[in-house]
Structures are given as structure tokens and as C-alpha cells.
Design goal:
Elements (H helix, E strand, L loop, with lengths): L2 E2 L5 E2 L2 E3 L6 H5 L1 H9 L9 H12 L11 E3 L2
Parallel strand pairs: 3-4
Antiparallel strand pairs: 1-2
């Protein structure tokens, strides 16, 4: 979420739906299939995809955003 306070500081929160961080889920084909089926894109988000959003939010390109939720639900 972006909040622009009186000091014109911006804050952001990025909430990825699922990333390949949980090794036990990725190692179990049935659990991984269930997880991928629950994601609209049908796969886990890659760390670089999350990083791209974070870089955008930290850049001047996002200066016009007053409030948004950067949910990475791939």
C-alpha cells in the first residue's frame, strides 16, 4: 500500500501470492499442483518478478500513485 504523508514519503507493501520459498511444498508434486491450480497464472511467482514490482514502486515512475495494493497474484 502506498501512503503519502505530510513529509511526502511513500511506503509500499508487496504481498506475493506464492513464491518457491517453501521447499517441502515444491518437493511434493501433489502439493505443488494444488498450489499452482489456486494461482490464476497457474505457476509460482519468480523472485525477479517480485523484484520488478518493488523496483517500480521505489522509482519515480510510481510517484503519481496515491494508494494501491501491489499484490503479486500470478
Amino acid at each position: 500500500m502506498f501512503i503519502r504523508g505530510p513529509a511526502r514519503r511513500r511506503r509500499a507493501s508487496v504481498v506475493p501470492a506464492a513464491t518457491p520459498i517453501n521447499a517441502s511444498t515444491i518437493a511434493d508434486p501433489a502439493k505443488l499442483k494444488d498450489l499452482n491450480d489456486a494461482i490464476p497464472l497457474g505457476r509460482l511467482a519468480e523472485p525477479n518478478e517480485i523484484a520488478d514490482l518493488v523496483v517500480f514502486l521505489a522509482s519515480g515512475c510510481s510517484a503519481a500513485l496515491a494508494w494501491t495494493l501491489g499484490g503479486c497474484r500470478w
